[in-house]
Design brief:
It is a single chain. This protein is of the alpha+beta class and 307 residues long. The chain is 40% helix and 18% strand. It has a six-stranded mixed beta sheet with strand order 4-3-5-6-8-7, with helices on one face. Strand 5 and strand 6 form a beta hairpin. The longest helix is centred in the middle third of the chain and has 18 residues. It is elongated, with a radius of gyration of 23 Å.
């Protein structure tokens, strides 16, 4: 955090840029980084334009916000924004959905703060909506999206900030953020995280979904209650046969004929895929991003086979 002045003979120590950003007071930070801005906004719907909660550097409620205090405040808000439903897997054990998603969100928050270009023209922005988290930071990615997903290597923009996060026990192994974020989504059958780089604005955005939704919200709204029930049931079970859906204790929609007809309709609409298992068909959610699934499969091969 402090570095010895080796140019002069004064033998004095000066606060580093990373130390200033991490622990300094807001007014001192903006003397060095005039466009420094950290902003968290929470909305009560996916389409709302008015936030219901906000943490913003320089506001009267947060006059001395720095990276460390922003992380502590916002990480708690992110954790409280993750629903904690009672979901059982096929072994009737409670799933780790809440813990996985909280871990992914905090990993994305650290990644956002650690890789920001604080001399840029825009600030850090965290958006919290019912269906997703969105993390935007100034500065483009220094590794490819594929490398980020694989966790091959890390190229940290702010090594001092990364070091301080590690010293206080927040950041862990280098290059672990990407795999952790994507594994949380895949493990819990959520939409694939979205990563986009805007070279014109010099920003990077990562969106982490809290649930499974279709790419077209209008299509989802058009589904019947039975169709929504079937999709939700298959999501929680990973896959299911028509009989398993009929016998689900939450099924109040009908018997074999109605369920099978609706399953075939969802297959035709590309919401589900079906495969033969013995004399029956098993239904599962239609994969939404083949590229990410292929990259994750390659990472699995590297970790478990190609050693």
């Amino acid at each position: 955090m402090f570095r010895k002045d080796r140019i002069s003979n004064s033998n004095t120590y000066h606060l580093t840029d990373g130390g200033l950003l991490f622990f300094g007071k807001y007014i001192s930070i903006t003397d060095r980084f005039p466009r420094f801005q950290l902003d968290y906004q929470k909305y009560n719907s996916d389409n709302s334009t008015n936030w219901v909660d906000r943490v913003s550097a320089g506001d009267m409620n947060f006059p001395s916000l720095n990276i460390f205090s922003f992380y502590n405040i916002v990480s708690e808000k992110l954790e409280n924004s993750v629903p904690d439903p009672f979901i059982q897997d096929e072994k009737l054990s409670r799933t780790s959905y809440h813990g996985d998603l909280v871990s992914a969100a905090k990993e994305a928050l650290v990644n956002c703060l650690m890789h920001s270009y604080y001399d840029g023209l825009v600030g850090v922005k965290i958006v919290d909506r019912p269906s997703y988290f969105e993390f935007t930071n100034p500065g483009t990615m220094r590794v490819s999206i594929e490398s980020f997903l694989r966790g091959q290597y890390s190229s940290i923009r702010n090594t001092e900030i990364a070091s301080l996060f590690r010293r206080i026990g927040i950041s862990e192994t280098a290059a672990s953020g990407g795999p952790r974020i994507f594994n949380a989504a895949i493990k819990n059958k959520l939409n694939d995280p979205e990563i986009s780089v805007d070279y014109s604005m010099n920003t990077t955005r990562i969106r982490i979904w809290k649930s499974f939704v279709t790419n077209n919200d209008t299509e989802l709204e058009k589904l019947s209650d039975l169709e929504k029930f079937i999709i939700s049931t298959i999501k929680n079970k990973t896959s299911a046969t028509a009989n398993e859906i009929v016998n689900d204790p939450n099924n109040t929609f009908g018997k074999q004929t109605v369920i099978r007809h609706t399953l075939n309709s969802l297959v035709n609409q590309k919401f589900l895929v079906k495969q033969r298992r013995g004399r029956s068909f098993v239904y599962s959610l239609n994969p939404q991003n083949d590229y990410l699934n292929q990259v994750k499969h390659l990472k699995h091969l590297e970790d478990n086979i190609l050693k």
